[in-house]
Write a structure and sequence with these properties.
By secondary structure, this protein is α/β, with parallel strands linked by helices. Helix content is 38%, strand content 12%. The chain is built from 13 helices and 11 strands. The longest helix has 25 residues, at 7-31.
Amino acid sequence: MSAPRDPATLMMLVLTVAMAVAVAAVVYLVTDDTDLTLAQIPSPARAAAPTCDLSRPATATCPPGQYCRLNACVPVPPEVLCGEGDSCRDCECEDGLVCHNLRCVSPASVDRTPLVCEENQALADAVKTLALKCSTRKKTVADIVSAGACTTAEWEQLALEDEKFDLILSAFPDRFAVHFPSGQPQVKRKDWPPPEVLDHYLHQVRRFAGPLREAKQIFVIGRASPDGDAEANHWLALARIKFVENLLDLVLYEGIPETERDKRRVRIRSFGLPTMRTIEPARYHQTYLTDPSGRPPAVDPLVTADPASARELRAALDGAIDLQDRTTPAWQALFSAVNRVVFVIPIPCLGDEYRPPISVDPAEATP
């Protein structure tokens, strides 16, 4: 009779047999020719890209999030937003920024269009004309179209080239004309004006203090009298321009501490026109005593050395003499008087200020 088997030995035998069977199965699976390779595994079918045809409206539609391009529906590219200081020529500005002069900027930092330039269409058109004229002097397309971009020398040249420059300036509502007695101020003498005459000039110019201080720039244009020596008249015109510049300086910064004046400086463009560029009385009346619509300025633009001169000049220009009859001594005297002058034109806007885009409510637009 045989001895009974040990249970531990029996368990080891069973595990050995099971392992052998598992190894054999693995070898069979690896070496069997019926196994599929990766190349033999069929790939899932891909859906055809949607097509469209822009020439036929019925087939020009694409699924949501796509648009038709070259007769194929392609994904709409993600919107690219530009940050503060970035160029906004080809992108939208981030929320909270506005596109001004081709840059994304904070609304708090932009120079907005003054109300007078929004409400006065003739003024807005004149500013646009000046800006376009100035743009002809710029060298690159990147330059912003602005009436403030030209130098004084460039404005002088533009005024000489355009015979209708005065008519453009007639649209500026706060222009005024400073007139002088014959031969004053003398270049080599400093005894003119006496205090009472200076006070009278200052009193008249102070009427324009508001527009002068709010101006973005000020044109100061001197003319030379047509009678007498041409060279002497040229020097007189320059002396008159300097006199008016001093008047403006006194009025612009009156009551403002010296330390604050640089922050409030207004650009003054001063230049003189030669003797051959005189202005005749009728043209003077049309340009400086009326605006383009024929209405007189709100404030009398005639600034003279004394009240009597103002009354005489105003009466002559308003019809006391025939402004078309050049043969009379009265016309000749008036012709000389209107050219002993320095014109002052406060420019309240330059054409490059920020103007918020106009939004249209579709409900309001529907008739």
